[in-house]
Amino acid sequence: MKTLLILLLAAALAAGGYLTRPDEKAHEANAETQLSSTRGGFDIGELIADKVFGAGANDSRKFEDLFVATKYTVKADNVVIMECLGLFAQFLCSQPEKNRS
């Protein structure tokens, strides 16, 4: 009986994660918010670079659906800038620390 109850609760938890996982648009909005707060808000240099060199020419973003969760990775010049996991309509983002030499 306990095993059945545990399996039922695990299934309910998985179903809740599946139904409330963030989509790609939510990840994009969250990534922009996180990156702009890291830069201290609006970045005029980025705006000028986008206008002159084309928006995000070396920027790659990847969205992965992991069935119960979602993963969003932002790279620039093949270097990971930020990686976010989304689960239950929440985000857990991490940015690599800069190398201190």
3D structure, described in words:
Helices cover 43% and strands 28% of the residues. It has helices at residues 2-19, 24-38, 44-53, and strands spanning 59-65, 70-76, 79-87, 90-94. Strands 1-2-3-4 form a 4-stranded antiparallel β-sheet, with helices on one face. It starts with a helix and ends in a 7-residue tail after the last strand.
- The largest beta-sheet arranges its strands as 1-2-3-4
How do the helices and strands follow one another from N- to C-terminus?
HHHEEEE
Helical amount among residues, as a percent range? 40-55%
Proportion in β-strands = 25-35%
How would the global form be characterised? elongated
Number of discrete domains: 1
Overall average residue pLDDT: 80
Structural class designation: alpha+beta
Q: What's the N-to-C terminus distance?
A: 58 Å
- Uncertain segments of ≥5 residues (pLDDT<50)? none
* Largest beta-sheet details: 4 strands, antiparallel
Strand tally: 4
The number of distinct helices, counting runs of at least 4 residues, comes to 3
List keywords for this structure.
alpha+beta; 4-stranded antiparallel beta sheet; 3 helices; 101 residues; single chain
Detail the topology: elements first, then pairings:
Elements: H1 2-19, H2 24-38, H3 44-53, E1 59-65, E2 70-76, E3 79-87, E4 90-94
Describe what is shown at a glance.
With 101 residues, the protein is an alpha+beta fold. It is built from three helices and four strands, in the order αααββββ.
